[in-house]
Amino acid sequence: ERPRDRAHPPAYARAELVAPLPPELAFLAAEGFSPEALLNALSAAPRGVRPVDWLLNEGKLTDETYYRSLATHLGCQYYCGALPLASAFDAVKGLRCGVAPLEPRNAGPRFVVAPRAEFVPKLIEATLSGAIRSGSFALTSPQRFASLVRARRGEELLNVALGRLPASLAA
Length: 171
Hints:
Elements: H1 11-18, H2 23-30, H3 35-44, H4 51-57, H5 63-74, E1 77-78, H6 91-97, E2 99-101, E3 111-113, H7 120-129, E4 137-139, H8 142-163, H9 167-170
């Protein structure tokens, strides 16, 4: 009998490694990331820091890779900005909550979601339970989302910011 390839453990061994991972990391193993590296993040992250935030902040995983993998896992489109954001939405609220409607079309996603890592488990649960249909939304990273909203709605955001200045600074 040949020795097992340590780089590719059998499926049952991989399942045992994935079981203790939180949902915001467990899907990465299904997308081809090393379960061992993901488990190491659990112990390497400082107390009070989510392991996924640690991976992203330390550059062990890029935002693009993480959110593209999440989109693949959820079966939804990854949003790069090709579909236009709806012309009538509150950009400030959109930035705050990470959700924006897309221009209405006959088919395809109706809104874009850019969840912070702490909300990813709820999004996974909602999608897998059928509460949200994966074809109804596109997913993107919070950084890409903020950049796109600022690029397309910059004047509106500037006007809101200027309107919030204290009178002593605006004079």
